[in-house]
Amino acid sequence: MKTLYFDTLASTQVYLKEKLIDKNISLPLAVVCELQTAGVGSRDNSWTSQKGNLFLSFALSISSLPKDLKLESASIYFSYLLKETLEDLGSKVFLKWPNDLYINKKKVGGMITNIVNDNIVCGVGLNLIKSSNSFANLDLELDKNIILKNYFKIIEKKPSWKQVFSKYKINFYTNQNFSTHIKGIKVSLSEAVLEDDGSLNINGERIYSLR
After folding, report:
1. pLDDT by residue (tens digit) across 122-131?
2. Measuring CA to CA, how many Å separate 41 from each of 14, 26, 123, 170?
3. Where are the alpha helices (H) located in 89-207, listed in sequence order?
4. pTM above 0.70?
5. In 3D, which of 62, 110, 54, 55 has the Cα closest to residue 83?
């Protein structure tokens, strides 16, 4: 995957989305910067930027995705592939539904996905060496270039949703002591049943990730 590197950007995701809207780039493409001044996190929260951490966005055409991957499952799919990448490098990170990366009980990173024209844009923030008080950092020191190389290699192999989900489903028990926000309401994941498309069934209601 072609990758553009910058010292500083307001947001890798905003930069990439603007280029897609202008139809001024060819895909697949990734954007990485050392420092973000206006990073975007889940539910439109800001993602605190500290130099040395990973700030990444990448875009793929929807037509290039695995045939069995539904767009509403994309956050889980690409987040789990990142979790596997970090795990293969020695981390004990796990994925909290649908797109947050955790070490023990603290968040170390996350992903958000957006559709722009006929493309999907994934934005990643990952605390490699520094974190704010409310978050943690990864449990070992890793070179971000190694992470990117291994992550993109997995993405390019295009494992099917069925392959990825079968592994995530086994690991879903790690979510049992956590909660998530559904329609602005905090809901315990211990009450949730994970469906085959990655949605949650909570008290008979089907909940899809909108991140």
Report:
1. 999 999 987 7
2. 12, 25, 9, 27
3. 144-157, 161-171
4. yes
5. 110
